[in-house]
Design a protein that fits this description.
single chain, mainly alpha, 13 helices, about 50% helix
């Protein structure tokens, strides 16, 4: 029950932020801080009144700056036999593939085309740092740190500065409707550093006491809301919703409306669902650690097989590159894409003549990383 209440309240906070209710500063406060305040409220909610008599599972904790198991901080790898080391090699290869995929995908999504970034990407440095932190984590016997989905793009969303614009290219009832677009992103390192320091601080005694008060149902609600928000922006979800809409009520500005062969959308969605089903199915078996192999097999399918059945224009709308050429410049650009050098990132997305400014700049998005 608590997890569902967290989901409902946090989702309502996000909906208020994207609506026209209240004054701008009120809805922005609800949008940016609604989710963490919801977690704080429901953490205290289960400890007051009659709820105190209800037994709920809380987050398990250990002693301050101490491993969760009764052992030392350092793993005694020198006690392992040579045979054990060779047995671990196949699993290490799978883990390397997983991290290479997971970290790069989360990094690409966090630097997607919807974010007008100005600072260049650092994919090589990311992997180098990931290798160092993975090695240290292995020696300490703690979980390996890597990029997370959807937390990474949520963090970028929270750093966005947005504004309301009107689109006069629409006709009929949709003419002049307003939408919120990203003006620029506050690119800095302070928030990531603060997150790391707070994570380290959670190992201290006082914060461990606070963490132990959080019900597991509240955390489940937090994952529910992150999942719902991720599904709302998922490409498969958006394509299915497009196919379910009435054609006459679909705005002309929707990119999928430019695809003349509607069957192409059905076929592409079917392939995406098959890929999702195969990936999910393998995670339910003993071979779950090998699910990155299924995802990697989709790369040659997209690169060599799909262009035989879909036109270049259809693929550019159905499966456009996640990151912009500016972001991919350090790794040779997007595969098969030939574009002119990007010299100005400030007006690449908002320079259309039909867009007029109708509101002042708004800071933040509906997600709190």
């Amino acid at each position: 029950m608590v997890s569902l209440l967290v989901l409902i309240v946090a989702y309502m906070c996000g909906a208020i932020g994207s609506s026209n209710l209240f004054q701008r500063y009120v809805r922005k406060f609800i949008e940016d801080y609604g989710t963490p305040l919801t977690i704080v409220f429901f953490t205290g909610f289960v400890h007051i009144g009659r709820m105190k008599t209800v037994e709920v599972q809380t987050l398990p904790t250990s002693k301050a700056f101490f491993p969760t198991q009764d052992r030392g901080w350092f793993i005694h790898f020198w006690d392992l036999s040579v045979a054990d080391a060779f047995i671990a090699i196949p699993f290490a290869i799978l883990l390397t593939i997983l991290f290479y995929f997971d970290h790069n995908v989360s990094s690409l999504i966090a630097q997607g085309t919807e974010f007008p970034l100005k600072k260049p990407a650092g994919f090589h440095w990311d992997i180098f740092l990931l290798g160092l932190t993975t090695g240290v984590a292995g020696l300490l016997g703690i979980p390996f740190p890597n990029g997370l989905i959807p937390q990474a793009p949520f963090h970028t969303n929270a750093l966005c500065v947005t504004r309301q614009v009107s689109d006069d290219s629409e006709s009929g009832a949709a003419k002049g409707h307003t939408t919120r677009v990203v003006d620029h992103v506050v690119e800095q390192r302070v928030s990531n550093l603060a997150q790391g320091l707070l994570t380290l601080g959670t190992m201290s005694g006082p914060l461990l006491v606070v963490l132990h008060l959080i019900p597991q149902g509240v955390l489940a609600g937090l994952f529910f809301i992150m999942g719902v928000q991720a599904l709302e922006g998922n490409g498969i979800t958006l394509k299915i919703l497009f196919l379910c809409r009435e054609k006459n009520l679909t705005p002309a500005s929707v990119p999928l409306s430019r695809i003349r062969r509607k069957q192409a959308i059905y076929y592409f969605v079917a392939l995406e669902l098959i890929g999702f089903g195969a990936t999910f199915a393998i995670t339910q078996t003993i071979a779950a650690i090998g699910f990155p192999i299924i995802i990697l097999l989709l790369i040659p399918v997209r690169t060599f097989l799909l262009p035989r059945y879909f036109t270049e224009e259809e693929l550019s709308l159905l499966d456009a590159p996640t990151a912009s050429p500016f972001t991919m410049e350090s790794v040779g650009g997007n595969f098969g894409e030939k574009v002119a050098p990007v010299t100005d990132r400030g007006d690449a997305r908002l320079s259309s003549s039909h867009i007029d400014h109708t509101d002042s700049v708004e800071r933040g998005e509906a997600n709190n990383a």
